[in-house]
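User: quick one, sequence for these tokens?
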């Protein structure tokens, strides 16, 4: 392969820029031509594609968001949309494409590969909901953003002797909530994969109050439901003053952590290696600190699992 493309798609995640940088620099290092596709699959169908040089990715390793922008496209889900995208790539002479995004984006990459255009998926999402990799790019940064926010909320929770319900992102996965719960010493973590009963959460809060606890923090994953309603129920049941914070999109922004930058660099480079070998239809990941790759369809047919040992530990430490 002599000419490859790279795009970012779906929800943005801190570290996507570091991955784009790694793809571009690694490709140029191996004397490939590399093209940036703007606005995800939408831009791919429109031919919004520009040649990247070494300098195109200068000064972006530390930036959140994605310099290639991201978009969601319904049209691309159709055969015609995918055909349109392939024609645009053929016009320029691209032979392979690296897709940085979440599982929706990987479905698109799998479809293009099926149609004869080799693609490699790089997991970029704060949700950590992709099997075949221990971490996705952006997860560590988002976790640290949550940890920092909860520390601040804890200060005011203590001053006012309140219970706080903090809703965090993660779509259908509980990873962000679970990790944040452990890192912040939350009283309860409510995740979609294993719902602690409402009675048990209430009993824990009441035990804490009897012991003279000044505050309680409950971390609720967005996949479980609405934090505001959950907070109301808690207040009605316990009669303790309860406030709710929905952290929202601050979790998706900000400068990527050192870990995410390194992960993005390793995975972006591996994606280029695979395309150079003429391989498509794979996703890259990191497992036990080794860079690995898997069949993308197999990954899409596997259900992501949260680490239940960590969930147990979180319960044991918050008695
Ligand atoms: P993420 O990649 O973060 O999971 P989405 O689920 O929104 O984000 O997917 C991003 C884009 O990937 C969609 O807007 C769509 O263009 C493309 N995509 C999603 N699912 C499919 C599919 N089944 N077939 C083809 N393309 C898809």
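Assistant:
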């Amino acid at each position: 392969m002599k000419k490859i493309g790279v795009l970012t798609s779906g929800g943005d995640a801190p570290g996507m820029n570091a991955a784009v940088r790694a793809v571009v620099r690694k490709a140029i290092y191996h004397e490939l031509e590399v093209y940036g596709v703007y606005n995800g699959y939408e831009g791919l169908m429109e031919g919004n594609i520009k040649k990247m040089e070494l300098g195109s990715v200068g000064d972006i390793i530390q930036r959140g968001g994605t310099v290639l922008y991201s978009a969601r496209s319904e049209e691309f889900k159709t055969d015609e949309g995918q055909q349109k995208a392939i024609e645009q790539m053929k016009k320029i002479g691209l032979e392979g494409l690296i897709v940085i995004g979440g599982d929706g984006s990987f479905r698109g990459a799998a479809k293009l590969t099926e149609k004869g255009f080799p693609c490699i998926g790089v997991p970029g999402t704060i949700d950590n909901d992709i099997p075949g990799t221990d971490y996705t790019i952006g997860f560590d940064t988002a976790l640290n953003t949550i940890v920092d926010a909860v520390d601040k909320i804890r200060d005011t929770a203590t001053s006012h002797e309140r219970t706080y319900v903090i809703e965090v992102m993660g779509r259908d996965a509980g990873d962000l909530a679970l990790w944040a719960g452990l890192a912040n010493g939350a009283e309860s973590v409510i995740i979609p994969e294993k719902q602690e009963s409402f009675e048990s959460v209430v009993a824990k809060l009441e035990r804490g109050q009897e012991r003279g606890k000044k505050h309680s923090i409950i971390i609720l994953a967005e996949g479980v439901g609405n934090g505001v309603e959950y907070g109301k129920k808690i207040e009605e049941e316990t009669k303790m003053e309860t406030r709710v914070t929905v952290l929202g999109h601050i979790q998706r922004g900000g400068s990527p952590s050192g870990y995410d930058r390194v992960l993005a660099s390793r995975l972006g480079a591996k994606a280029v290696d695979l395309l150079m070998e003429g391989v498509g239809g794979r996703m890259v990941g990191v497992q036990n600190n080794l860079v690995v790759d898997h069949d993308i369809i197999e990954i899409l047919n596997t259900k992501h699992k949260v680490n239940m040992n960590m969930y147990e530990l979180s319960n044991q430490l918050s008695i």
